[in-house]
Specification:
Chain lengths: 182, 454
């Protein structure tokens, strides 16, 4: 039974795509739940949202998307047999991930200083769940990027970059929905 | 039988089936008590009967898994089992422990004794000495099969089976931790109960199912393994945080309501994948295996697991629904079909496949075995529906309108009678299965009778 299937055309390993689809389902379900609970109390959610630090999150968007571009670029460099440059790009991408986490950390610390916790308002339950979950994936992504910088077979870099783009993508959707949507 | 030590499985399967018989007798008895509440109330109270029903289930399923491992690991690793003696010693420990539990509970021996007395924590009721025995038996088992696999060929099936069995044993250690804070007690309790049936047991299920598909359909190992990895990945991805669906109302923080709802909803995915896997393999397969009964049980397992664990699980897993349905007969409906579909059918599939091989004969009594599948499965599905209807009415009367518990129970008595009837059908199906497995006759359903079972 060696017929080729459409799955074989996927870039990278099948398993990384199983993971990516699972993650997108989880974050998608989380956002859908957020939006439906928000619909029951738009004023309260709007007021809660005003407590967020939008500028920091905006900067973080730029940081994370740049990091994603570097990871993609790393794969191109590796395919062009520039191993050293590819590794450097991956390490810098990982460092930008750390920058994202640092800014996120300031944001959480600010919330804590204002006396805002996960049970202050339903908005914050979702805020902490979704951004906290995402931040955990950034931590995992930084580790993955460093791993594939070390074991730098093109196939590995491809899988690492695919995971990192998923982390990017989730943030690019979380950011407007949580921070900006009025 | 290619390897002599596969024979160990015969003892495990036989003891498992004996316990299965006890489990179903307990179930029928509990069903009688539901409709005639004073039946045997002095001799064998309901709580003891229920404990026997659930614990003998868990023990016989585990014995089936162990037996399945002893049966398939020699073939997968192309290696005799490391030690036959240890395997039988393990079985003896487990049987002594099981008898110990039964005697301790039925006669309430050593009440209050730290080591010898009953513990009364649902599903983990075993006295501490039995728990210790289970750990020793598990260590013996893991040592035995791990040594076998390490010496021989490593396949995805045996690796995932081993990972599942190791995790099963490690998670059982939480059974020893019983904090006096009730919320914490429950939190750790689910580390055993949930992470078993909705975590590592799924690994065991997927690997045994994969082995059966490999043998029965003749599809390439490479294809089977790809499916196996996807199933296992989605099972762990959804199942681990899916534990949150038990944390809605036990005093844990409110964010568990969302974590539990979202992840446990995804628990349907691995069950759907297992069902698709089984059917796709049969469609793609080019082998016309004579053991049709094993194939029927395998397909039935994947299908009923999808409905029992997947669909009926999702039915009441969202916290907004569970707020009303928690602990009603809806839970009982789900519990019965999930355990039956996922783990009972799985064991009966591997028994049906392995028993003729272990007894060195062709797969006789196929028609009776298949009839027993339809009887047992029909009975269980009927039971699931009656309990679902009972639970729906109960949820509405008790949780929405606010009627008293016992008044509601009176109103749904008719469903309990029907449940008893379906339980009797399951019992008859089981008798038929035992007959078909143990009593040899001459008849094989096969288009080509010269093809011997492997």
């Amino acid at each position: 039974m060696s017929e080729t299937s459409v799955l074989d055309e996927l870039p990278g390993d099948l398993m990384i795509w199983v993971l990516i689809v699972s993650e997108l389902l989880v974050f998608g379900a989380g956002l859908a739940a957020f939006l439906s609970v928000r619909a029951s109390d738009p004023v309260g959610f709007g007021a809660a949202q005003d407590a967020l630090y939008r500028t920091g999150a905006g900067i973080n968007t730029v940081v994370l998307v740049s990091s994603g571009a570097l990871a993609a670029w790393a794969l191109r460099l590796r395919d062009g047999a520039q191993r050293g440059a590819a590794r450097l790009a991956l390490v810098v991408a990982a460092l930008l991930g750390v920058v994202f986490l640092a800014i996120k950390g300031f944001e959480y610390a600010g919330k804590a200083a204002d006396g805002i916790g996960w049970d202050t308002h339903p908005f914050f339950t979702f805020y902490y769940l979704l951004t906290g979950f995402h931040a955990a994936h950034v931590v995992a992504g930084v580790i993955v990027l460093l791993l594939v910088a070390w074991k730098d077979a093109p196939r590995n870099i491809e899988a690492g970059a695919a995971f990192w783009h998923m982390v990017d993508l989730v943030w690019v959707i979380l950011f407007p929905v949580l921070y900006l949507l009025r | 039988m290619k390897y002599q030590t596969q024979k160990i499985a015969l003892a495990y399967f036989s003891v498992a089936l004996a316990l299965f018989l006890i489990q179903i007798l307990g179930g029928v008895l509990a069903g009688v008590i539901y409709v005639l509440p004073n039946f045997l109330s002095e001799v064998l109270p309901f709580n003891i009967v229920r404990m026997l029903h659930t614990n003998s289930l868990v023990v016989w399923l585990l014995l089936g898994f162990f037996g399945a491992a002893y049966f398939l690991i020699p073939e997968e690793s192309e290696q005799e089992i490391y030690s036959t003696k240890l395997a039988y010693l393990q079985l003896i420990i487990l049987v002594v422990g099981t008898l110990g539990v039964v005697l301790t509970y039925v006669f309430n021996l050593f009440e209050g004794n730290w080591l010898l007395g009953k513990e009364g924590r649902e599903f983990l009721e075993q006295p501490k000495w039995v728990k210790m025995g289970i750990v020793v038996a598990a260590l013996i088992f893991l040592f035995n099969v791990t040594m076998t696999v390490l010496k021989g060929r490593k396949t995805a099936i045996s690796t995932i089976l081993l990972v599942g069995l190791w995790a099963l044993a490690l998670l059982f250690l939480f059974a020893f931790y019983n904090p006096s804070n009730l919320a914490l007690d429950k939190q750790y309790w689910w580390y055993v109960i949930h992470l078993w049936v909705e975590g590592v047991w799924e690994l065991i299920m997927a690997s045994i199912l994969a082995y059966l598909m490999l043998k029965l359909t003749g599809v390439d190992r490479e294809v089977v393994e790809k499916w196996l990895y996807v199933i296992v990945a989605t099972a762990l991805f959804s199942g681990i945080l899916g534990t949150g669906h038990h944390y809605y109302w036990i005093g844990t923080p409110g964010y568990w309501q969302w974590i539990g709802s979202i992840f446990s909803t995804l628990e349907i995915v691995p069950f759907f994948a297992m069902m698709s896997f089984a059917f796709v393999m049969v469609w793609k397969g080019h082998r016309d295996h004579p053991n049709k009964a094993a194939l029927l049980w395998s397909l039935g397992c994947a299908t009923l697991a999808f409905f029992g664990a997947g669909v009926w699980g999702f039915l009441h897993t969202l916290h907004g629904v569970n707020y009303y349905s928690h602990g009603t007969q809806i839970t009982a409906a789900h519990g019965h079909l999930a355990f039956y579909g996922a783990y009972v059918c799985l064991n009966l599939a591997i028994f049906s496949y392995a028993m003729p091989i272990l007894r060195n004969r062709d797969p006789y009594n196929q028609v009776l075995n298949m009839a027993s599948f339809w009887l047992m499965s029909g009975g269980m599905v009927f039971m699931t529906f009656t309990l679902t209807f009972a639970g729906t009415i109960q949820t509405h009367m008790q949780r929405v309108i606010g009627d008293y518990y016992m008044d509601v129970q009176d109103q749904i008595a008719v469903f309990y009678w029907m449940r008893l009837g379906s339980g009797v059908v399951v019992f008859l199906g089981l008798l038929l299965f035992l007959y078909a497995i143990f009593v040899p006759r001459k008849e094989v359903i096969s288009t080509d009778a010269t093809v011997a079972a492997e």
